[in-house]
Q: What sequence folds into this?
């Protein structure tokens, strides 16, 4: 079920400009709780989800004149805040509340399910390869009462998934991006470094499952690594020490910037919220800015 506001709350979409080293407000709403912006590959628009649906907003819009325009999802189940855009801009891929992944062509030609059926198994989408051939997602299954999450790749040509992690730790936020060597890697957050909830740090792994590399190691709880298209930056969400999962309505959530080589990031902004702020890749195609969402304090 889609999130809704607490009484008196609102959501604001921002664009953080790296050259100006400052954010710009795009849109505020107290009627639609929107989340998780993506940037269209041509730079023209941002896409956000809200109320189980998907919406456009012009990237050049400014506070006061921005409008949300709904995207026709073709009758698929309600979606959550895990969605990515094909590199050629032809389609958006979404995670639906039935646990499956769908491709939704933006020409209105109708959606198709791209994930496979695995019984009691749910797919949470976070990334797409630079050539548009493969999705990166988190697979959620159950071992008795224990919730198990791992990183998977899904070829869009109908081939079998590839499981990249297989461990007892909570993994999330799997996203493709260039590494320091220029090769394509899969970035993710995991609790494997601390071995317990409330200790998530950032990692990357090669698409064949080799060379798992830890990127952050600090007292904060780090989630959702987003490599910039040019390979120069890695933006992420940093929660207060001891935070379990990626909850909503948390104070002292910091959006940080480091590099794909890792290291403690520098704080760009401190926000109220967390969940929905920057769950999926939100970089501008020229790597000059990224988008995020904040929520008014309770």
A:
């Amino acid at each position: 079920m889609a999130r809704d506001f607490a009484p008196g709350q609102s959501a604001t979409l921002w664009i953080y400009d790296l050259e100006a080293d400052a954010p710009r407000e795009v849109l505020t709403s107290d009627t639609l709780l929107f989340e998780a912006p993506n940037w269209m590959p041509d730079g023209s628009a941002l896409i956000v989800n809200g109320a189980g649906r998907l919406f456009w907003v012009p990237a050049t819009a400014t506070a006061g004149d921005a409008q949300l325009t709904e995207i026709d999802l073709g009758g698929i189940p309600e979606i959550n805040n895990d969605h990515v855009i094909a590199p050629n801009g032809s389609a958006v891929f979404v995670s639906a509340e039935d646990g499956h992944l769908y491709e939704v062509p933006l020409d209105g030609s109708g959606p198709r399910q791209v994930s496979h059926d695995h019984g009691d198994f749910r797919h949470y989408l976070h990334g797409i390869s630079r050539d548009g051939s493969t999705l990166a997602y988190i697979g959620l299954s159950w071992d008795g009462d224990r919730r198990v999450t791992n990183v998977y790749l899904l070829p869009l040509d109908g081939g079998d998934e590839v499981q990249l992690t297989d461990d007892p730790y909570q993994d999330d936020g799997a996203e493709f991006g260039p590494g320091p060597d220029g090769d394509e890697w899969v970035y993710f957050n995991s609790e494997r470094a601390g071995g317990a909830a409330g200790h998530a740090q950032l990692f990357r792994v090669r698409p064949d499952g080799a060379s798992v590399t830890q990127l952050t190691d600090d007292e904060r709880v780090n989630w959702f690594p987003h490599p910039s298209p040019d390979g120069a930056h890695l933006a992420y969400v940093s929660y207060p020490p001891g935070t379990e999962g990626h909850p909503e309505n948390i104070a002292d959530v910091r959006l940080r910037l480091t590099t794909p080589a890792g290291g403690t990031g520098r704080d760009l902004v401190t926000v109220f919220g967390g969940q929905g702020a920057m769950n999926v890749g939100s970089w501008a195609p020229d790597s000059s800015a990224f988008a995020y969402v904040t929520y008014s304090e309770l």
About this structure: The radius of gyration is 18 Å. The domain at 11-295 is CATH 2.120.10.30 (Neuraminidase).
